[in-house]
Design a protein that fits this description.
The chain is of the alpha/beta class. It is 34% helix and 19% strand. It has helices at residues 23-30, 39-43, 59-64, 78-94, 129-136, 144-150, and strands at 2-5, 34-37, 52-55, 68-71, 99-102, 113-115, 123-125, 141-143. Strand 6 and strand 7 (123-125) form a beta hairpin. The longest helix has 17 residues, at 78-94. The protein is globular and about 40 Å long. The model has no long low-confidence stretch (mean pLDDT 95).
Length: 151
């Protein structure tokens, strides 16, 4: 069983109310080979919501308490991101997920790239909060971009 970001499965859960449908990932769900999760909704956010970025590092730094997640209006939303990450970890463990495919660039789900915290569209190397927590707990995490090249 694998976990996939809900937006990749065609669910309109992104901050702006859109999805990032990937038909191969949707097919896995239809064949009961995957389960969709959205760490941000699990953490308590609604759709739509203000975009957010990690300030002061990446997801590993957020877990360590040395960086935070803020939305575009400047509100610290770190606790909701942490809550969603821990609930996602619990779900991955419950289904014995062998892999988690997450949406790249997200402050939750980015597995190699995230935005730099300035809300100017600039990306940096790093993990989102959920990706960092899952990896810290020994779960394989990849992005939709990398997974598609493997499939």
């Amino acid at each position: 069983m694998i976990l996939v970001s809900s937006c990749l499965a065609g669910m309109k859960v992104r901050y702006n109310g859109t999805d990032c449908l990937d038909e191969k990932i949707q097919k896995l769900l239809n064949e009961n080979q995957a389960i969709a999760v959205c760490p941000e909704l699990l953490g308590g956010f609604s759709t739509p919501r203000e975009p957010a970025e990690i300030v002061g590092g990446d997801g590993e730094d957020v877990l360590a308490g040395t960086a935070k997640v803020v939305d575009r209006s400047g509100i610290d939303v770190t606790e909701l991101y942490l809550k969603g990450a821990y609930i996602t970890l619990q779900k991955a463990q419950e289904v014995s997920a062998t892999m988690v495919v997450l949406k790249e660039n997200s402050p939750s789900c980015g597995s190699t790239m995230i935005y730099n915290g300035e809300f100017k569209g600039k990306k940096i190397a790093g993990n989102g909060v959920t990706a960092a927590l899952l990896r810290k707990n020994g779960i394989e995490v990849t992005s939709e971009e990398n997974w598609l090249s493997l499939s």
